[in-house]
Every structure is written in C-alpha cells, then in structure tokens.
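Handout, section 3.2

Students often ask what a structure token actually looks like in practice. Rather than define it abstractly, here is a full record for Tocopherol cyclase. The first block is the sequence as you would receive it.
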Amino acid sequence: MLRRYRATGADLPFGDPLRAHGTALEGYFWRLTDPGSGRVVVALCGVHRDGEGRSWSNVALAAHPGRVLHQADVPGGLADPDDLGVRAGAGTFHGDERGVRVDLGPRARLDLHIHEACAWPTGRALGGLGIGQVVPGLSQRWHPYLLGARATGTAQLDGERIDLDGFRVYAEKNWGTSGFPSRWWWGQAQHVDGRPDACVAFAGGAISLGPWRTHATAIVVRVGDRVVRLGDPVRSPVRTDFATDGRWRLWARSRRLTVELDGRADPAGAHLLPVPLPARRCSVPGARQHFDGQLHVTVRERGRLLLEGRSPLAGLEHGGAHVMAEVSRAAAATAPGGRPAGCLPAGRGRRAA
C-alpha cells in the first residue's frame, strides 16, 4: 500500500522524499559556486520511464563563465528506492549524499566530494513542498535537501582543469508523474551578503491534479543553523511578479516572517538546459537558466532584520512549453527524419556538447 502511495509522488509526514518514488521522472541537481573566481558548475541527472515502463536517463554538466554545456541521453538508469542515489550509463553519472561523478568524455568530467553539509533539518514532518508532500498525483514536486556544503574535487571542462576546493554546494531533488509542468520558475543563491552559511532557493510553476490547475511557489531560506520555508497557500503565501525573463520578484509572509527576493539577469546570457520528455524518451532544451544572476534577499522576523544582502552568482530560471516548442521546432527542422534532437532512436544514446 505504501509503495503504491509513493508511486503517486506523495510521501507521508516524516517520510523520506529523497528515496526514489517510481514516478515517470526522478531528477537530481547539484550546483557549485565560488564567488572568489566567479565560477559556477552545475551537474544534473534524471531517470525516467516511458509509457511502456522502459527507463532512460538524461545527464548534463554545465559551467560559467561561458555557456559550457555537455549533455547525453542514455538508455537505462537507476534511481535508488532506499536512499538518495542515482546512476546512469556505464560510469556516465553516479551521485549520492557523498558526492557526484560525471564522465561525458575527456572534455566533460566531474569528481565532486561533499563535506560539512547543511542538510534539510531532521525531524520535520514536511519537506520543501510543504503540505503538498502528502497529496497524491501532483504533476511535479521539489525538495532542496542540501542547503550548503564544502566541496573538494576537480572538474575537467573543455580542456581546463578546475579545482573545486572552496566551492559551496547546493543540491535538490525533483520528481513527478508526468514530467515538468507547462511553465515554471526557479532560483537558488549562496553567499548572500558574503555569508557562506546563507542560502536561498525557490521553485514554482503550474501544478495539475487531474482536471484541477493552479500555480504555486515555495521559498526556502537558510540563515546560519536555521532553515525556514514559506509557500503554504493559507499560512505563508508567496506572490510572484515576472515582467520578463530577466526579472524575478517574490514576496512571502507568514505570522512571523517576511521574505522578499528581487532577481535580475541579462536575458541574452542564459544557458539552455535540457528538459526531459519522459514518454517520448528524449530531452530537449527547455529551461533558460542564468548562472550569474543578481539576487537581492531580505528576511525579517517580526520586523527585525535577519538577513539582507545580494548574491552575485544566483541561479535564475524560467522554463516551460513555450521554450521547448520554440527549440524543438528548430531542432526537428534539421534532424534526420524530423526527429527532435535528443530522442533515443533504437536504444542508442545521444551525447552532445
């Protein structure tokens, strides 16, 4: 009974959302930042099931400065049902709570080790999605489980070796019954006001449950040893204002806390990250993510200032069907047989830089 309940994407209170649920999409995401050098490295892996129950995975390794992006779609993949863990390909990707290894060829490798992690607080009944955690059948779910850690290791990207010692690490998991929503927004920032122990993350978008449709946003803020979450529709609603792809404004209020986020980025400077289409066994560029956005954060408790400052290396993202359709049309026009770029033909993987 519990297995079938979790297969809808839901978790009971005090459950572990990091264990794979057996949904169509199980996604894992790590983000590394170093304000001293201005570098950002992103690693992601999703394990998916199509309509016939066959599994496949999409993997990507990206970096800033520049629009460095290496990616692959590969058959198979394993999302751990007992713990946080994901594997894809024959050594292509392996990630767990201790670190991440990626091998997309000699120009795209990562060997990350995670230390001194600030994880989601133990003993909390609900995760990053709040009360939505227990609702079966929601189309998409999100849980930011690593809110800052110290990195060691190396990355090899386009012939350059990057020493990761001193980078800070953020990580999250997302999963859903039908892939990504039709529209979403997301952001994450470390080093707010220059503090290594300050972190903010938010995620929102269109949510569906059968014929029911709505929009929702959740915000998680870490200040020192304290982690707060806002985004429950009644107790701590979040208002959003996105005038263009280059602006993210969010306000959230609870009985005790007020959070204001104001993000800006150059619309022309975004990476186009891959988004999986589980049933079609392909990933397409569908998320415009800025690696060096500017995010101003203000957090108050009963009017008293807890945190105020700017992060110069914020990740800020817009995505959705409009982005996927725009890029897919261009890819289909040039791909053999009109097949969208990234689809897995006859069980073969695709690797691209």
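Discussion prompt for tutorial groups: The chain has one domain: 2-335. How would you have guessed this from the sequence alone?
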